[in-house]
């Protein structure tokens, strides 16, 4: 997936509907929260095993893929509205996390970085 192609498509979709006027960062963050809620709705009340089982069905796979795509497109829209290069931001954050969680200290541990030895 090329993020810039997706971003172009998303901007075209928005412009064709004249929706940019509604896509303030605040509104997009709230829409993202709503979509995270919809994703949560797909997995709620299911055990971990049941979620994986659901994801293997056509209906479950589509429901999860739709909500994950909604979450991603809102994240992309928020980054765009705030002039944040998502590719650069994600890579910078992974680097920061790698520094916070050195593999030799964090391997196999679920401890927060402040609790690592
Ligand atoms: Mg949705």
From TrEMBL:
CDD domains the record matches: NTP-PPase_RS21-C6_like
GO biological process, alphabetically ordered: dCTP catabolic process; DNA protection
Taxonomic superkingdom: Bacteria
GO CC terms in record: cytosol
Entry annotated with the keyword Hydrolase: yes
Any GO MF annotation of the entry: dCTP diphosphatase activity
Keywords per UniProt: Hydrolase
Protein name: Nucleotide pyrophosphohydrolase
Organism: Georgenia subflava
């Amino acid at each position: 997936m090329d993020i810039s192609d997706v971003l172009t498509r998303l901007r075209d979709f928005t412009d064709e509907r004249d929706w940019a006027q509604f896509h303030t960062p605040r509104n997009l963050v709230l829409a993202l929260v709503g979509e995270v809620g919809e994703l949560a709705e797909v997995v709620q009340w299911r055990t971990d095993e049941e979620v994986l089982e659901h994801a293997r069905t056509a209906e479950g796979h589509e429901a999860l893929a739709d909500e994950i795509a909604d979450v991603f497109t809102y994240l992309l829209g928020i980054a765009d509205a705030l002039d944040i290069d998502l590719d650069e931001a994600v890579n910078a954050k992974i680097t920061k996390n790698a520094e916070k969680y050195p593999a030799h200290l964090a391997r196999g541990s679920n401890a927060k970085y402040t609790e690592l030895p």
